[in-house]
Amino acid sequence: MKKHVKMTKLSAFIFALTLVITFGSCDREPVDDKPELPPLESLVMDFSDFSQPPAGAKGTAETYENFLHAYLTVNFWSLASLATVAVPATAYGHALQQDPEYLGDHTWEWSFDFDMQGLTFDVVLTGARINNDEFSMEMVIYSSLMPEQGMKWFDGVVRYDHTHADWNLYGEDGVKMLEAAWNKNYETEAGDLTYTYIEPDQEETGSYITYAYMPEEVYDASFTISVSSGTTVIEWNTETLEGRIQSESNFGDSDWRCWDSAENGLADKVCE
Fold first, then answer.
1. How far apart are CA 51 and CA 34, in angstroms?
2. What is the pLDDT of residues 49-97, one digit of tens each?
3. Using alpha carbons only, how large is the chain's radius of gyration in Å?
4. 54: which of 119, 161, 255, 266 is 20 to 30 A away, CA to CA?
5. DSSP code of 106?
């Protein structure tokens, strides 16, 4: 009888210990599943090489039409995407400098605030494991103008190895405005980012712009821009800014038009 009682107590102790270990491990952060935020380039397109029109040179006969066409085409998308991307991109830049808190259930939260344009924004960025390859992201921002009303600025799915990400970006009324798709090859450093305009019932719904970086090419960067009137391809060298543009809708043919380096004023030149 005593032996039976001892065995019963031992079984109860083992059972209780198992519960402690099991539930204790549930609360422990699964480090291997912790999402690392992909770089800012996965969300924000780089328009910087076309941020200024050609200055030109007084008293010369040189023209700058080719670069100017490229500048105007790119600048339209830069301004159009600014309203949707500016706030979440700034917030995401701050998130990259923060450490997340583990919430349990394979979910982490980055929570912080920042100031922009005279306003204070409180940010909640949540990341959660989907499977061994991917995790989800969602950013909600509260502004000091409406501190009780948060707005979802973006959500998406990211690969753990940071080779691909898909994002949805929303407008202030909660309507999905842009889809963004990013790819990165870390062996060659090649990558691309595409914005597709998907606001419903608009003339340019379905239009897109793709930025691609191809370090092994002479023209190592490009924009491919597709709108209702046609497709424009812009290629340039990121060091010299020398480049070319192909746009049948602008020029009436499919010929390339070229411009010289920034050192030579981005002036028109004959394509070689």
1. 37
2. 999 988 764 445 579 999 999 999 999 999 989 889 999 999 999 999 9
3. 26
4. 255
5. T
Q: Look up residue 8 and give its two tokens.
A: 């019963």
Q: What is the DSSP code string of 178-241?
A: EEEEEEE-TTT--EEEEEEE--TT-TTTT-EEEEEE-TTSSS-EEEEEEETTEEEEEEE-TTT-
3-state SS track over 97-159: CCCCEEEECCEEEEEEEEEECCEEEEEEEEEEECCCCEEEEEEEEEECCEEEEEEEEEEEEEE
For 29, other C-beta atoms within 10 Å of its C-beta total 14
CA 98, 194, 46, 241 torsion-angle sign: positive
Using an 8 Å Cβ cutoff, are 94 and 67 in contact?
A: no
d(CA 100, CA 19): 28
pTM: 0.86
Reference 190, options 209, 167, 169, 210; nearest CA is 210
CB 229 within 8 A of CB 249: yes
Burial class (CB in 10 A: 0-12, 13-18, 19+), 146: exposed
Confirm if 49 and 221 have CB atoms less than 8 A apart.
Answer: yes
Burial class (CB in 10 A: 0-12, 13-18, 19+), 17: exposed
- Residue 44 DSSP label: S
- Integer Cα distance of 198 and 77 in angstroms: 14
User: What are the residues facing 154 on neighbouring strands?
Assistant: 139, 169
Identify whether the C-beta of residue 73 lies closer than 8 Å to the C-beta of residue 232: yes
DSSP H or E segment with residue 117:
none
